[in-house]
Amino acid sequence: MSSERLYADADLSLAFRISRSWIRKQRMYRRQGLPHCLTIDPVMIGSVPRYKLSEVQAWLDSRSGDSSTAQPIVGGRP
User: Fold this and answer.
1) Closest residue by Cα to residue 47 from 27, 30, 33, 32
2) What span, in angstroms and rounded, lies between the C-alpha atoms of 9 and 23?
3) Spatial contact of 4 and 52, defined as CB atoms under 8 Å apart
4) Which of 14, 23, 37, 71 shows the greatest Cβ crowding within 10 Å of its Cβ?
5) What is the C-alpha to C-alpha distance for residues 54 and 10, in angstroms, rounded to an integer?
6) Per-residue confidence (pLDDT) for residue 16, from 0 to 100
7) Could you tell me if residue 18 is inside a domain?
């Protein structure tokens, strides 16, 4: 078992100043095969999603400088 810390939607929301509902919507869109930009696979603990710091960092690195596919992230508003 990995000892890497896991982060909740609320943790990501506070760290990146995005809404928790945006994170949840992106996860739902991904599960349904709809267009999305949050491509991190959550670790599910029961029905509660958590994210590995290393995967969050890799996602951020992949997004740096990529303004062509930017999505509205705060409260779903541009």
Assistant:
1) 27
2) 7
3) yes
4) 23
5) 17
6) 85
7) yes
The three-class DSSP label of residue 50 is strand
Tokens encoding 62: 């992949």
Count of the separate structural domains present in the chain: 1
With cut-offs at 50, 70 and 90, classify the pLDDT of residue 63. Answer: confident
Question: According to the model, what pLDDT value does residue 3 have?
Answer: 78
Q: Tell me 37's DSSP state.
A: S
Return d(Cα 74, Cα 3) in angstroms, integer: 31
DSSP category for residue 42: P
The 10s digit of each residue's pLDDT in 8-49 is 999 999 988 999 999 999 999 999 999 999 999 999 999 999
Does the structure show a pLDDT above 90 at 65? no
Q: 37 with 30: CB under 8 angstroms?
A: no
Q: Is residue 28 part of a domain?
A: yes
